[in-house]
Design a protein that fits this description.
The longest helix has 17 residues. Helix 9 runs antiparallel to helix 10. 42% of the residues lie in helices and 21% in strands. By secondary structure, the protein is of the alpha+beta class. It is built from 14 helices and ten strands. Strand 1 and strand 2 form a beta hairpin. A ten-stranded antiparallel beta barrel has the order 1-2-3-4-5-6-7-8-9-10, surrounded by seven helices.
Amino acid sequence: MTAERPGYAGLAVDGLRYLGEAFGLGRRFDAAAEESVRHLFDGWGHRVSRDTDGGGTRQDAVATAPFEYSLVLDGDRADVRIFFRPLPARGPASAAGSWERGLRTLDGLERLGLARPERARRVAGLFRPRSGRAAFGMCLAASVRASGIARPKVYFDTLAAGTERSRETVATALDRLGQRGAWSWLRCHDPRGMAHLMPAFFALDVDESPHARMKFYTTVAERSTAELEARLAPLGPAAAAAATGLVTDTAPPGSKPLDMPGVRPTLCWSMTSRDGTRPDDATLYLPFDLYAPRRREPHDRLRESLGPALLAGVGRLVDDHAAAVPERANPFHWVAAKLVHGGRALTLYVSAAAVETARTARLEHRRVHA
């Protein structure tokens, strides 16, 4: 690990390199992290605040970071992803500013041969911010690998035209993308979910493969695994069983986690061009830090799902974070899994602030024991 780099871009590079070290991704990953962030944060990575593009401290950047990380853990492989809201080069953050900067980023990725945003352009006009209730304009995500940027994704703002048009906007976008049948299927088989869409993200993989996904999010109002299984039954018995398995594996034994107060789980429906008549998959997101807050609990809950190398990486991150904030030892605010095509892969989500806390704790440990 080297000296701290300036701005949001520096914070992101340092965080990615820390995660690369924790999961043994090698020196090529270190070099790719800096190059990837240079492209993804182009034009605004110097900032340390969402309110102003003037001076500020590293702590200002940590407190306001418009990005987070996720770790896709599968077998013995860790794929590190970064999710971010692009900001304007100058002035306060706004939905319109993030929209314009996001479009530039997509164009840049296309010129590099890293994205094919044809589908995104087909629906982009629906999500251009034109209401005072627009939430964020546009967000983007991508994997950062030793080979560079991979699997880019765009997140459109379903509140772009106002809260009262969020559901209509999602339906129209799916129709334009050849998914009218899937929307009808969901209205028939998940009417409660469609009545409680999460007003925020409509996500698209930015490529043209038949596996590229279109996704939107709903709240899990169900208070038991039996209710959740019943909701997922139309997708198939494997999906219902996988949802119960994820809840059982990550929550305290004998508890009723879906009935706990606090953050509600999320269910994301995803479609692909392979079938426009019904969803292709669903992803369940659980508030992992709520279910497993103490130091050893993340390791214990994930032991059956992860191989030894990945489990060790998770343990390093938890231990480093717990050294600084033992009362909030688990740094992962979400754990998620695809319920049909995910195999045994899990995705863990961690904030920029949590990674920076763990990274600086690791540096202090090295300094004391040097």
